[in-house]
Amino acid sequence: MVKVSIKHIDAFSSIPEKGNPAGVVLNGEDYTEKQMLTIAAAVGFNETAFVVPSNVADFRIRYFTPGHENNLCGHATMGTVYALRMNGLLEKPAFTIETNAGILPIQIHEENNQLLITMQHAKPQFQSFGGSKSDLAASIGLREEDLHPEYPIVYGSTGIWTLIVPIKELSSFSKMAPNTKEFPKVLLEMPKTSVHPICFEVRDFENAMHARHFSSPYSGTIEDAITGTASGVMGAYYKKYVNKDIRLPATLIVEQGHEINKDG
């Protein structure tokens, strides 16, 4: 038996039990990789993050689903930084983290009595989806005609790969019923990736996009409440495929999690 202290941080919301829960272990160096995976499985969240020392950055974060290690995770990064700050272990307003996706800069500042954390992702990458659109739609409980005809379905990454699936109407999101076991048969180019439906019709007018995120069947989870890394991909997707003329830097607000009562 190993006794572990785990922080539960709900990222992307200031309301308890909303947003995306992350487990954070501040003394990650005390555990082996096998123990980290066992701990993540016991916690059961989509991600549990472990803080370990780094020789090339201020610290390193390792991210584990209940099924495997991930290269990067947005909400668990936010949760880790917040936990370090709240426990008096992080005072600097700017620093770097080592991840399996590279060394990434983080900034913290306070505004209107809120702690705001900015995370830079890895350089965006995209790859074409060559599979069956009808099979893809069926794997998330929709029909091919529910897919948006104007925008491409592509694999995208700003540190971790996901399949971006543009959907025509917001009403389709409440109808989605993912059959994640079918994903590897549909995602022929990247069988282990997740599926991220997006929509430009939104619940709240100030937001730019709506989304859901369905996990790879190898991760041990079904759905991510609100996904930081995929939101980074959405920003890059928006710039590349939706509005190439958008002036950078720009702010896009993504809404997610409402269908599973985890608004973020």
Which features does this protein show?
single chain, 264 residues, alpha+beta, Diaminopimelate Epimerase, Chain A, domain 1, 2 domains, eight-stranded mixed beta sheet, six-stranded mixed beta sheet, 5 helices, 16 strands, 19% helix
Notes on the protein architecture:
By secondary structure, the protein is an alpha+beta fold. 19% of the residues lie in helices and 29% in strands. The chain is built from 5 helices and 16 strands. The protein starts with 6 loop residues before the first strand and ends in an 8-residue tail after the last strand. Strand 2, helix 1 and strand 3 (47-52) form a beta-alpha-beta unit. The chain has 2 domains: 7-119, Diaminopimelate Epimerase, Chain A, domain 1, CATH 3.10.310.10; 125-260, Roll (Diaminopimelate Epimerase, Chain A, domain 1).
H and E string: EEHEEEHEEEEHEEHEEEEHE
Number of domains: 2
**SS elements, strand count:** 16
**Biggest pleated-sheet summary:** 8 strands, mixed
Label the CATH architecture of the largest domain: Roll
Strand content: 25-35%
Query: How far from one another are the termini?
Result: 35 Å
CATH fold call of the largest domain: Diaminopimelate Epimerase, Chain A, domain 1
SSE-based structural type: alpha+beta
**Radius of gyration of CA atoms, rounded to a whole number:** 18 Å
CATH class group of the largest domain: Alpha Beta
Provide a count of the helices.
5
Shape: globular
Task: Return the average pLDDT rounded to an integer.
Answer: 96
Low-confidence stretches: none
CATH superfamily of the largest domain: Diaminopimelate Epimerase, Chain A, domain 1
Helical percent range? 10-25%
